[in-house]
């Protein structure tokens, strides 16, 4: 897997590169500004880019803009965004194209090295990974809606784990239940939310998240 890293903090940028290299991945570029990131993505033929939301020169949303531009040029280009804080508007902007290959994690999650590398690989493979805090925020925002209120506590837990990018087997292991039980919960979730299954786990997660964050 060929990885581009865009992170203005030198220590974190170096740390990310070292982690990925230690896990057998190839870091083709590690840069600290938005213009450098744009050039690296365009010229490196990377499989995935890890992007900080706020980068020089203005430290607003340059990293996110580079990410969305990259996905405009190459639909579905895998992007894992790192953010210092939960910013749901940024997550919504990334999800708006309806394609997979997306991740949004808080920088604190990098401390769990194995989980971070797993997230990078999921995104590179076309999957979707959202930080648990982002998912919790989305659920809270829609918590009073009738359709969400119909979900049982276990169904909410399954929904949250789905949004984190976990496969059915991983959800079953986490909850201590069978995959058959997980499938049943997922079917119930989609039924209550009025979502049609299409056999594509990533699209199902995106559909649920888009539904949850809609006004």
Automatic annotation (TrEMBL):
Organism: Asanoa ferruginea
Cited SMART domains: HTH_LUXR (SM00421), REC (SM00448)
Annotated protein name in UniProt: DNA-binding NarL/FixJ family response regulator
Keyword DNA-binding: yes
SUPFAM superfamilies associated with the record: C-terminal effector domain of the bipartite response regulators, CheY-like
Modified residues (4-aspartylphosphate): 52
GO process annotations (BP): phosphorelay signal transduction system; regulation of DNA-templated transcription
Domain Response regulatory: 2-122
Record keywords, A-Z: DNA-binding, Phosphoprotein, Transcription, Transcription regulation
Domain (HTH luxR-type): residue spans on this chain: 144-209
Name of a matching Pfam family: Response_reg
InterPro entries linked: CheY-like_superfamily, NreC/VraR/RcsB-like_REC, Sig_transdc_resp-reg_C-effctor, Sig_transdc_resp-reg_receiver, Tscrpt_reg_LuxR_C, WalR-like
GO molecular-function terms, A-Z: DNA binding
């Amino acid at each position: 897997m060929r990885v581009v890293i865009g992170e203005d903090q030198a220590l974190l940028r170096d740390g990310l590169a070292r982690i990925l290299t230690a896990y057998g991945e190839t870091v083709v570029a590690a840069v600290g500004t938005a213009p450098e990131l744009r050039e690296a993505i365009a010229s490196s033929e990377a499989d995935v880019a890890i992007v900080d939301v706020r980068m020089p020169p203005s430290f607003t949303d340059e990293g996110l803009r580079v990410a969305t531009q990259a996905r405009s040029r190459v639909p579905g280009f895998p992007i894992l965004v790192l953010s210092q804080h939960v910013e749901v508007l940024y997550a919504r902007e990334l999800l708006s194209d309806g394609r997979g290959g997306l991740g949004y994690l808080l920088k604190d999650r990098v401390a769990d090295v194995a989980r971070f590398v797993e997230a990078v690989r999921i995104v590179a493979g076309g999957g979707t990974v959202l930080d648990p805090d982002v998912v919790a925020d989305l659920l809270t925002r829609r918590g009073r809606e009738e359709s969400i209120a119909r979900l049982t506590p276990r169904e909410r837990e399954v929904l949250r784990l789905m949004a984190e990018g976990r496969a059915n087997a991983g959800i079953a292991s986490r909850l201590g239940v069978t995959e058959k039980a997980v499938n049943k919960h997922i079917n119930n979730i989609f039924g209550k939310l009025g979502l049609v299954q299409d056999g594509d786990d990533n699209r199902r997660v995106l559909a649920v998240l888009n539904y949850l964050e809609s006004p």
